[in-house]
Amino acid sequence: MGETPKAEESLTRVEAGGLTFRLSTWGPPDAPAVLMLGHVPDMLFSLEPLAAALSQSTTPRRVLLPERIDLGPDRHFRAIANDIAKLIEALDCGRVDIAGIGFGGTVAIYLAIAEPQLVRALALVDAPLPNIHSIDADLSRRLAEAYAYVADFLDPGFEAKVASGNDGLLSQFWERASWWPEQEEGYRTEFAKPEYIARVAAAYRSNFTLVETRETFTAEDEQRLSPFGHRVDAVRAGEPRKLVSPAFTPEPIVLDVPSLHYFSCPQLLPPELSQYEFLSRFVTAPRIELGNEGSLGAHISDPEGIAAVITQFFADAAERAPLAVEGEPEPVREARDSRYIVEQYDKK
Fold first, then answer.
1. Least C-beta-crowded within 10 Å: which of 126, 211, 262, 319?
2. DSSP code at position 232
């Protein structure tokens, strides 16, 4: 990777809803805004190359990247979405495009559902959709198995294990990633900070619950449920079968805001989650892009490539629903978005 263009030297401080957000910024101040929401929690240095690449697209954008989004006392993704809505209102830049990474994308989905007048389009990278576990019993079971590794973070002893030097619970998914050797030092520095580990625990405990069973994992389970072909601490033959379920309300989502869904490693989750026929039951005309990574994190390994995909999606959205001119009456802006919503994207 080449040298990443730096953000502006001073962070932008924005007071919103009693919280103080600190944002790094790239691109011309008067360009249309893109708000980036990182994973909860995330590391700013892992997001900066994508932010810089987005700002340097053929149509320059003003990229706003919060230092962190989990500032409030309630770490449920819906509560964080409410905080981000207040941030967008405080920025006073009108309807924005949002790029959401990981759980930052899940937050963005909640935001777009609750406050669609604030969001023009969503570009989601490796972002789990909330509430789809409620669709049927078989999918619920397979999702619980796919998220079994999350039991590590829900374990009451998680923080103590990491403090004792066992950061394998965190690094086990990244060690085979192509970008890990370059980023390892920065990640391990963050893993060593108690406040970062407390944020990890709070995020998972606020959004997932353990599903206790009286069974034990088998050797076949260990092989089948190990992401990317290697074992995780939570899934070991002979150990209690602890599965995980999202702590969301059971109603499926209905997302009408135009959305891009990029999956770095689609084999990690049940296959239908990255298929148009399935997603279009809950998401209006989703655009789907499939990566071929051996792990999550395509935005780290190939920020320019992911930026190109996102930029094209936002450009297509702009043709159908341009960012509203502030002087236009609200019904005009709503009509623009309505015309976009009924148009179908090409299947990717």
1. 319
2. -
